UniProtKB/TrEMBL annotation:
Annotated keywords: FAD, Flavoprotein
One cellular component term from this protein's GO annotations in UniProt: mitochondrial inner membrane
GO BP term, pick one: heme biosynthetic process
InterPro entries: Amino_oxidase, FAD/NAD-bd_sf, Zeta_carotene_desat/Oxidored
One Pfam family this sequence matches: Amino_oxidase
Protein's name in the database: Protoporphyrinogen oxidase
Record-level Gene Ontology MF annotations: oxygen-dependent protoporphyrinogen oxidase activity
Organism per entry: Phyllostomus discolor (pale spear-nosed bat)
Domain called Amine oxidase: residue spans: 70-179
Length: 185
């Protein structure tokens, strides 16, 4: 009977790992387990008023053709000004966030025209920010898995790199480790 590999999580890293496992010279049976109703993790698009497509996930994924031409720019805001608002006890009203996004786009990209459509969504703690000691904990976990010969590998934005390409590469490397080969760096 052939080998079975279970991939926990259908985010970008899990999908990449599943893809690379299924493309191996001697592919194992791949079982992808996802806890939500959809695949893709943080990568998600929603259709807004008038058919505009809003990206609610990593930047840079957009549909091809006419649909992609109508996809609007995703602006991610945060940092000290948002922390200052929270410290003052200010709620984050939609209008203020939209205004700040439009100011950032005007300043950084030179786009002065207001958007034809706008969708404001506040994601709290949505971008992985590695805390002090993260890499040491990750190294310790990797040594533990190797020392105990546990058939488990870690992949995804929570471990090594938060960008979309990091997640895809993390999934590819996890698949290589699961197949017993060293991932090409």
């Amino acid at each position: 009977m052939g080998r079975t590999v279970v991939v926990l999580g259908g985010g970008i890293s899990g999908l990449a790992a599943s893809y690379h496992l299924s493309r191996a010279a001697r592919p194992p049976k791949v079982v992808l387990v996802e806890g939500s109703e959809r695949l893709g993790g943080w990568v998600r698009s929603v259709r807004g008023p008038g058919g505009a497509v809003f990206e609610l996930g990593p930047r840079g994924i957009r549909a091809a053709g006419a649909l992609g031409a109508r996809t609007l720019l995703l602006v991610m805001l945060g940092g000290s000004w948002l922390q200052t608002l929270k410290a003052r006890g200010c709620a984050s009203p939609q209008e203020l966030l939209q205004q700040k996004a439009q100011e950032a786009v005007a300043t950084q990209l030179g786009l002065k025209e207001p958007p034809s459509h706008c969708l404001v969504h506040l994601h709290k703690n949505c971008i992985p920010q590695y805390t002090l000691g993260h890499w040491k904990k990750l190294e310790s976990a990797s040594h533990f898995l190797a020392a105990h010969r546990l058939p488990l590998t870690l992949a995804g934005a929570s471990y090594e790199g938060v960008a979309l390409n990091d997640c895809i590469e993390s999934g590819r490397q996890a698949a290589a480790r699961a197949l017993g080969s060293e991932p090409d760096s």
